[in-house]
């Protein structure tokens, strides 16, 4: 019998009539509905239209206004799925820092759905530094896509060699240098990309990646993260 990844209770799953007769592949969730309901899903009606930051109105948020000044012709079109609250931090810490890779499957249904909604885009997980990869053993964003069965391309490398992002404070992150490099400049022109990262904090990392693809002639760039 299958148990919930988060609470270990046995999951009873009954197919609805619609699911039975839709003949669509059935996406099995690794966690029960009551555990999944504890995560705060970002409703786009009450979020920043550019970066999905959860807020009371639909205006561009402070972070995005700042980026607009710095990159007036590069409007962010970012979608985040869940609020980066205590619950999401708990998940990320089990997955990314404890290294329990079973947790990579938690949001696979969301990722599969977004892949089907963005079929014309090449999914690109943001790479982590060599040092982080050696310590952790995996790139958390890449493994999330892999686990969900979402095809992706590794077109970026991260040559950052200093301390890990999570050890730096917000101010230091805002001014950090371009950490990415394109593997093959020629493979970007006129193609559309969807950049993917586990968490979007200030947007700095995502904008570095976006700026690189923009200058290499990408046709369109969207981005996505689990948390914001
Ligand atoms: Zn549960
Ligand atoms: Zn915003």
TrEMBL record:
Family designation: Belongs to the ComF/GntX family.
Database matches in InterPro entries: ComF/GntX_DNA_util-trans (IPR051910), PRTase-like (IPR029057), PRTase_dom (IPR000836)
Region forming the signal peptide: none
Pfam family membership, one: Pribosyltran
Protein name: ComF family protein
Residues annotated as domain Phosphoribosyltransferase: 142-221
CDD domains recorded: PRTases_typeI
Organism for this UniProt entry: Jeotgalibaca ciconiae
């Amino acid at each position: 019998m299958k148990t919930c990844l988060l609470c270990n209770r046995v999951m009873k799953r009954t197919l609805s009539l619609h699911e039975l007769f839709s003949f669509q592949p059935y996406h099995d969730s690794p966690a029960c509905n009551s555990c999944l309901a504890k995560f705060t899903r970002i409703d786009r009606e009450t979020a920043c239209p550019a970066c999905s930051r959860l807020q009371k109105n639909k205006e561009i948020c402070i972070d995005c206004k700042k980026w607009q000044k710095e990159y007036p012709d590069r409007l962010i079109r970012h979608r985040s799925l869940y609020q980066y609250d205590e619950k999401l931090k708990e998940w990320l810490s089990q997955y990314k820092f404890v290294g329990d890779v079973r947790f990579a499957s938690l949001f696979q249904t969301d990722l599969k759905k977004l892949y089907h909604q963005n079929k014309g885009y090449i999914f690109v997980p943001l790479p982590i530094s060599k040092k982080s990869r050696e310590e952790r053993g995996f790139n958390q964003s890449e493994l999330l896509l892999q686990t969900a069965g979402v095809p992706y391309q590794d077109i970026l490398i991260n040559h950052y060699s200093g301390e890990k992002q999570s050890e730096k404070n917000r101010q230091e992150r805002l001014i950090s240098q371009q950490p990415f490099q394109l593997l093959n400049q020629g493979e970007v022109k006129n193609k559309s990309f969807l950049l993917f990262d586990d968490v979007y904090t200030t947007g700095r990392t995502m904008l570095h990646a976006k700026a690189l693809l923009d200058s290499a002639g990408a046709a369109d760039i969207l981005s996505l993260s689990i948390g914001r």
